[in-house]
From TrEMBL:
A single MF term (Gene Ontology): zinc ion binding
Species whose genome carries this gene: Penicillium brasilianum
Keywords: Metal-binding, Zinc, Zinc-finger
Keyword Zinc: yes
Name this polypeptide is given: RING-type domain-containing protein
Amino acid sequence: MATYETEHNTTDPAIDNNSPRRRRPDLSTFFATLSEITPAPDHRPHAVPVPGDVSAAFYSLAEAFEVMRRQAADLASDRGDGADGDDLLNRMIQSLLSEADTPPREVEGVSDEFCDMLERVPKASLDASQTCPICNNPFLDDEYPLVVQLPCHPTHLFDLECVRPWLRLRGTCPLDRTDFAKQLRDKAEERKKLVEEDEEEEWDGMYG
């Protein structure tokens, strides 16, 4: 039986045909794989992940970004602007595929805590011309945008949903390649060295 909408060539007013398409792919598989190769520090902290699992994480994120790239290209085609995807996203995909072919021994990304502590950008400070460098969508397309500023530069703003998986896996700024993960490792190593020096001085003071 035909619906009222079909018979009268109209649509249900509850359905908004002008609403933006979903442009961010499902990353549950990626994060599940990532959790397998980045165990908690108190659970086998020195365990080395299987290379195939590390490779799978890079492939998984590359595939998710490729879905995002195709969706962005489709939207650009619908708008008639002739764009065929974002150069930055293409470079990120190629980098991930290269890493997947020759995976590192361990994932060297940042922690979830690092991502959660990134500076949030208030919606009121955003304007309609600002877009996420990864998905290329205007931040204000989202009713409740979750935009973060990376520590390397005040203009390096991203949708957290887009940049979090990259940071967790690679630990770098997608724009200028600032290596946040290395900075954190260097700071941790420096703190460890200071603690060891303090303990050595205390030992010398007691038994010197």
